[in-house]
Amino acid sequence: MIAEIVGYGMRETFRRPKPLMPWLATIGYLAWGAIFGAISLWLFHGHFIQPQWLRLVNLFLTPVIAGLIMAKIGSWRRNRDQEPIRLDSFSYGFSFAFGMALVRYLWAK
How far apart are CA 83 and CA 95, in angstroms? Predict the structure, then answer.
């Protein structure tokens, strides 16, 4: 059942112009972030931040910053009459970055 939800969520990230089910697209972006987090572990095995308490802060702070940056990029694109992609929003940018950060937090050495 979880694989079904994640699979449909990942597919939902490709729907244009808007996802039919935003909550499912959020799960999809979490999954894509987790995949890219796993790829980053293959390239960089260790933690970038050594103290445990800073890694925990990073787990939540970095996705918030990434979401804010993605929202700003979306605003910048709209102001220039460009069509932003769905990832150019706070919620989807946060979801992707959180999925990636969570995988690195849990499995980096």
Answer: 21
Residues of the chain with confidence (pLDDT) below 70: 15-19
Measured in whole angstroms, how far is the alpha carbon of residue 47 from the centre of its chain? Answer: 18
Q: Are 34 and 97 in contact (CB under 8 A)?
A: no
Cα gap 4→7, rounded to integer Å: 5
Structure tokens at 34: 């987790």
Token pair belonging to 66:
């990434």
Residue 85 tokens, joined? 């992609």
Contact in structure between 66 and 93 (CB atoms under 8 Å): yes
Residue among 42, 30, 44 nearest 93 (CA) = 30
83 contact partners, CB below 8 Å, separation of at least 6 = 17, 77
